[in-house]
Specification:
alpha/beta; Rossmann fold; eight-stranded mixed β-sheet; two-stranded antiparallel ribbon; 10 helices
Length: 284
């Protein structure tokens, strides 16, 4: 367990993941019914972009920083809401004034998007990150932090008494069999709670493995969102979000948002949307 997300906070992969997450939360909380949220690989909750990890790699400069610097006129609604959530977290927990310094991880975005009637469980296995996550939400009774394997939590926490759920699965992909573990956890979750919304992030390093993963889930109702950016030195250049049981209007919001993001992340950035059974791609 060597992966630490702090090195990659605010990069292009976070932009895609957190844009989708914020929009899912908005759509799923639009109904006046309780929602259960589970973050299986939560990380520390928030990140110092000038700290020893994110400051060393500087990946946020080619990600969230470019979007915040883009002209605001014509910004799609979903993007504007995501950026507002990022800025709100920085203003609350970061140093006053100046450039963005604190970036919210998925637990902070989930917490901000939920209502008092909703419930949230955040899991993190890495001992140091789990401790940081507990400190991040110390005194907040709306968040239950667990130091445990998030894959196990998928089985243990479902079905929820709320009868509605958003499950974010964002593994570190250190293990060679990560896709296999991911599929098993997702299938377990769907057997226990087939009507839940499952949002899965994964890197596209081995295109054959990524293709096999998607093909193996062809029987499910999914929306797949991909992003590919120019990268050097063996750095990750492509990733995807796969949403199982996507809420109505998510696809519409992403078809508006992803081309805008591709334009403002820089030349060579490409995005694509696949919505089976039509598998209609959108590139920009």
């Amino acid at each position: 367990m060597n992966y630490r997300h702090g090195f990659h906070a605010g990069n292009f992969a976070d932009v895609l993941k957190h844009l989708v997450l914020c929009e899912l939360l908005r759509l799923l909380t639009a109904k006046d019914k309780r929602l259960f949220a589970l973050d299986t690989h939560a990380g520390t909750g928030g990140y110092d972009l000038g700290g020893s990890m994110a400051g060393r790699t500087g990946e946020a400069a080619a990600g969230i920083a470019r979007l915040l610097a883009a002209p605001k006129a014509g910004t799609p609604g979903a993007v504007a809401r995501y950026l507002a959530a990022v800025v709100a977290y920085d203003r609350k927990f970061g140093p006053p004034g100046g450039a963005l310094r604190r970036y919210p991880g998925s637990p902070r975005l989930i917490r901000a998007g939920l209502r008092p009637l909703d419930r949230f469980v955040a899991c993190e296995l890495h001992p140091q990150d789990a401790l940081a996550l507990k400190r991040e939400f110390a005194g907040d009774r709306s968040v239950e932090v667990r130091q445990e394997d998030g894959y196990h939590a998928v089985k243990a926490a479902l079905p929820p008494p709320e009868r509605r759920a958003l499950v974010l699965i964002d593994p570190p992909f250190e293990a060679t069999d990560e896709f296999e573990k991911l599929v098993r956890a997702l299938r377990h979750g769907l057997r226990r709670f087939p009507v839940g919304c499952y949002a899965v992030w994964y890197p596209i390093k081995d295109t054959a493995a990524a293709h096999d993963f998607v093909t193996g889930l062809a029987d499910l109702k999914t929306l797949r969102l991909e992003m590919d950016v120019p990268a050097e030195g063996g750095k990750l250049s492509a990733c995807a979000m796969l949403v199982v049981n996507p809420p109505w209007k998510l696809e519409e919001a992403m078809r508006e948002s992803l081309p805008w993001i591709a334009t403002h992340l820089g030349p060579g950035t490409k995005t694509a949307i696949f919505a089976p059974p039509t598998e209609t791609p959108l590139s920009a």
